[in-house]
Amino acid sequence: MSIGHSFLGLLEGKPRHGYDLKRAYDERFSPGRPLHHGQVYATLSRLLKNGLVVVDGLEPGEGPERKRYAVTDAGITDVQAWLSQPEKPEPYLQSVLYTKVVLALMTGRPADEILDVQRTEHLRLMRDVTRRKTGGDLAEQLICDHALFHLEADLRWLELTAARLNELAARVRP
Amino acid sequence: MTEPLLVGTDLHKMYGTTPALRGSSLTVRAGEIVAVMGSSGSGKSTLLHCLAGIVRPDDGTVVYAGREISAMSDVERSALRRRDFGFVFQFGQLVPELTCVENVALPLRLDGVRRKEAERRARVWLDRLEVGDVAAKLPGQISGGQGQRVAVARALVTEPKVVFADEPTGALDSLNGEKVMQLLGQAARDTGAAVVLVTHEPRVAAYADREVVVRDGASLDLERVA
Ligand SMILES: Nc1ncnc2c1ncn2[C@@H]1O[C@H](COP(=O)(O)OP(=O)(O)OP(=O)(O)O)[C@@H](O)[C@H]1O
Ligand SMILES: [Mg+2]
Fold it and tell me: Using an 8 Å Cβ cutoff, are B199 and B174 in contact?
């Protein structure tokens, strides 16, 4: 799960303090499993070092939580590239994909394209696995079937999400 | 890449005030298997029927092997469907009064092949689909999965250039559905038939060479976009 890209996406709407960023992230993308302060600190310093965010304000006090961060043009390019790149299909992708879709909706990007690109990638892999399965012995077939069932579940989730995109947009748009 | 065999361009079709197709296009090349996916009511079956010359589109063209289907006479069109096209549907396509071998032989009989020869060829196809043992039974006496294999044999017995399959595995459990799809895919590859395969099931679509998604009556070739 790319915390850095999610931070960049969250900063696109407006600059935020470190603690605000953490709160927004925990609330939207990781309910019940809040980020550690160490993760927030490490992520923000990496983004700073790579020029993807800048500090554009300070509050009295210590540490990255008190600084206010703004995304740079390079940061926007980076999050854009991440959003348009399909994930490597593998089981249990849902949380990354969910994050991408929500970020796209929040920042006014075409979320349906993310779903389409991902769908294509998934079906491409399903075709490869199916070819392998067709030529394989029983053990190979069973291994391939395991992968196919998981990929199929992802695909069904993509279809369902595509069908509910308007509903989701109404909830996440500011 | 081989030449396009069947090209539907900018197809439109209304049913009363319901738009079923709004500018759908699809190109099928010789020997390829194309999966057509999309949600219920999006226009998949209508697209398939237009491509197969069963339904006449309100607008747009369907060109098969260089000839426009809608410009053909009814006689020419039904001869084309009989000789060059094969069909598999979800269920209810076998004639209940005929045995399985007679069902498979039927397209050949309609085309003037003598009974003995037609049934000989039908048996070859039943064997290929691994249902040679049901040849003498009536459709009511066999399982759904066996019935679909018989239907696939019937679609392929004339060695068509294009097989149109609308949810051919839709009424089967996943194991049987996949087996039918695997046999259909294999038979199509062996005879060089192209397949237009409408399906909801990703694991069935994965037997195709590529996929097209129909959304609100328009078809999208996502792989070409990507
Ligand atoms: N013969 C008909 N008369 C009236 N409306 C029709 C007819 N056939 C289809 N329609 C309508 O056209 C639209 C597209 O139907 P179509 O059967 O092509 O969808 P589909 O994608 O095949 O759906 P499904 O996955 O449920 O089979 C639907 O709104 C449907 O109600
Ligand atoms: Mg249909």
Answer: no
CB B217 within 8 Å of CB B21: yes
Number of domains chain A is built from: 2
ipTM of the complex: 0.83
Q: Are residues A91 and A174 in the same domain?
A: yes
> Under an 8 A CB cutoff, do A120 and B222 touch?
yes
Domain B4-225 classification at class level = alpha beta
Do the bridges between strand B67-68 and strand B33-37 make them parallel or antiparallel, or are there none, so unpaired? unpaired
Q: Which domain holds residue A15?
A: 1-85
Clarify whether residues A5 and A77 are in a common domain.
yes
Q: How far is the CA of B207 from the centre of ligand 2 (A)?
A: 19
Query: Where in chain B are the domains?
Result: 4-225
Query: Which of A122, A129, A152, A160 should be substituted to probe chain B, the one whose Cβ sees the most B Cβ atoms within 10 Å?
Result: A152
pLDDT in tens, B82-139: 889 999 988 778 999 999 999 999 999 998 999 999 999 999 999 999 999 999 999 9
Predicted TM-score (pTM) of the model is 0.82
**Pocket-forming residues, ligand 1, beta carbon under 6 Å:** B 15, 18, 20, 38, 40-46
Angstrom CA distances, B74 to B56, B64, B81, B162, stand at 11, 15, 10, 19
Please state the atom number of ligand 1 nearest to the C-alpha of residue B217.
14
Q: Are residues A104 and A78 in the same domain?
A: no
Residues on chain B bordering chain A, Cβ-to-Cβ distance under 8 angstroms? 39, 182, 201-203, 205-209, 211, 213, 220, 222-223, 225-226
Q: A118 to chain B: nearest residue by CA?
A: B226
pLDDT band at residue A137 using 50, 70 and 90 as cut-offs: confident
